[in-house]
Write a structure and sequence with these properties.
The chain is mainly beta and 187 residues long. The protein contains two helices and twelve strands.
Length: 187
């Protein structure tokens, strides 16, 4: 390769790297942790943030021009002890496939052991688009609208209140995502 061709090639490669060239090469993150909130934002039209496993990022929902996320925190409002509180619940905005409770435990160590050992989605699992109330130390499965599987470990749940006095909750989830439609989870 001549000198000017090599320099042009190197300049192209540098530009590709500077514009985020490697970001999409490996595909979505297969494992991670995120916090899913039921808090609403906006003034005229309200939205919340949902998570997309395929994009490995949050998107506003509902919000024109943004992709539809795989999961949102429904935030069921209930009365406990004479007070309105928000309890977590999962919803899939695409209204396709959904969630299945794989296991619930009294201690985080037991939930972690089950989560780590859960290697494949069994046949016959029934997925629903809106979950029941989500609780600490549960392991959930999701089949996304793309037909891919996720296993999620509920690590923490927080009940909060915004400046206006509205109650909402946040769920900390650890997840393992299988982006190729397989029922087996990566190590």
């Amino acid at each position: 390769m001549t000198g000017w061709k090599w320099m042009a090639c190197a300049a192209s490669a540098s530009l590709w790297l500077l514009t985020g060239g490697c970001d999409g090469v490996g595909g979505p993150e297969r494992k991670g942790e995120f916090v899913l909130s039921s808090q609403f934002f906006g003034t005229d039209s309200y939205y919340q943030f949902g998570y997309s496993f395929e994009e490995s990022e949050f998107f506003k929902y509902p919000y024109a021009g943004e992709p539809v996320p795989d999961i949102i925190n429904e935030g069921f409002r209930v009365i406990e002890g004479g007070e309105v509180v928000s309890l977590p619940g999962f919803n899939t905005p695409a209204q396709v496939n959904g969630f299945a409770l794989a296991g619930e435990f009294s201690k985080q160590e037991d939930a972690r052991e089950f989560y780590s050992g859960y290697k494949e989605v069994e046949e016959g699992v029934l997925f629903i688009t809106v979950s029941d109330i989500v609780e600490l130390h549960q392991v959930w499965l999701q089949q996304t609208s793309s037909g891919n599987y996720v296993k999620m470990l509920v690590k923490a749940i927080s009940s909060l209140e915004d400046e206006s006095g509205n109650h909402y909750n946040e769920v900390t989830l650890e997840y393992t995502y299988q982006p190729d439609g397989s029922t087996s989870f990566p190590e």
